[in-house]
Q: What sequence folds into this?
């Protein structure tokens, strides 16, 4: 099942399976990627709660999500996504920092970046909080403009 949320960064498609969020997708949506989405159901309880929490996040009223998630990925991706979840609201970390937290060298930064870009549940798993070593905004699956908007939203909420 899925629903669509209109947000400050464009429409987001929220997808659930077995009462767990499996994806948050940026528009324009890609339907030919083989992902199972089912039918639209705006009244599904998990989708309604995800919509409520994301709406509160965009209104600067929510800093931590509490949703049932089903993250499907390799063991390394799972480890990276766990690290992403530990980056606090309004904070950032570099790809190298994430690699070091995993006990890897800076050489693993590229692999961290690939895992970061494969995150199926952006915003909730805050991949937008990962930046380049020199503080620059690097790539983002939803586009650098969306990344900037999300980071700005969090910074403005802190002050």
A:
């Amino acid at each position: 099942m899925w629903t669509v949320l209109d947000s400050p960064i464009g429409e987001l498609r929220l997808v659930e399976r077995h009462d767990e969020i499996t994806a948050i997708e940026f528009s324009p949506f890609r339907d030919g990627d083989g992902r199972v989405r089912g039918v639209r159901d705006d009244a599904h309880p998990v989708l309604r709660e995800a919509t409520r929490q994301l709406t509160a996040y965009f209104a600067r009223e929510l800093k931590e999500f509490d949703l049932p998630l089903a993250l499907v990925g390799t063991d390394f991706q799972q480890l990276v996504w766990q690290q992403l979840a530990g980056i606090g609201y309004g904070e950032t970390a570099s790809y190298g920092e994430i690699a070091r937290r995993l006990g890897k060298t800076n050489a693993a930064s590229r692999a961290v970046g690939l895992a970061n870009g494969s995150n199926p549940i952006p915003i909730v798993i805050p991949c937008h909080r990962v930046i380049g070593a020199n503080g620059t905004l690097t790539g983002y699956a939803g586009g650098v403009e969306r990344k900037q908007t999300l980071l700005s939203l969090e910074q403005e909420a802190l002050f």
Notes: Strands lie at 2-7, 10-17, 20-26, 93-94, 130-131.
